[in-house]
Specification:
Elements: E1 2-7, E2 12-15, E3 18-20, H1 27-38, E4 42-47, E5 59-62, H2 66-76, E6 82-85, E7 92-94, E8 113-115, H3 119-123, E9 132-139, H4 143-153, E10 158-163, E11 175-176, E12 178-181, E13 186-188, E14 192-193, H5 194-213
Parallel strand pairs: 1-4, 1-6, 4-5, 6-9, 9-10
Antiparallel strand pairs: 2-3, 7-8, 10-12, 11-14, 12-13
The structure holds cytidine-5'-triphosphate.
Amino acid sequence: MNVLVTAGPTREPIDPVRFLSNRSSGKMGYELAAAFQHAGHTVLLVSGPTTLDVPDGVDFLPVETATEMQEAVSHHIGRMRIAVFAAAVADYTPAAKAAEKLKKSSDTLTLELVKTPDILGSARMAMGFTGTLVGFAAETEKLSAHARDKLVRKGCDLIVANDVSKPGIGFDSNFNEVTLVYPDHDAPMPRASKHDLAHQLVQAILELHHTLRQS
Ligand code: CTP
């Protein structure tokens, strides 16, 4: 099956030498891409900048900004049966990119930010995706309720929810602890390395796909 995975952070340019970004390492998305490939699927990994090696046998499309990621996803999602959005897309981007390097001419500087396109949120309606849609959510409270709200709003079949208030897991770590949030129930998963977790997630996503789409 054709599987799309988004991963990594995005970079939103302020001027030619500066950008806004976040601490996503991309590890979870790269492990997922490798695990789908290992399970015999054809994987396209659309990724923001990371220091990771592209997994063997995975097709790779590097992007920088949220807008570039959206363009790449909308171009390729039509032939995908499963799409997993593990990228930590910047929620806001500078309203304008300065053509020249900003000089420190005043004591304060105000940046005007505008919302980036919600790539996951546009997959179902705007892009017409009919396959199995999986999103990620980072929450610090009411994990299940907030993730389920996201699941409904973005038309997902599953949200992989992360409690980012817990130490030692998530963003920079090799470990993660997630709860799988389905429309009708939750399935907490034990803390595991991102490598092991990716294999468990791929099994759960494939089972869900077969249940929903009988293919
Ligand atoms: N996402 C996306 N495009 C964006 C923002 C997020 O595709 N512009 C995807 C992410 O890849 C992830 C999910 O949407 O799968 C996260 O949703 P989001 O609403 O950003 O959740 P949080 O990061 O948890 O942030 P918040 O609770 O502030 O909404």
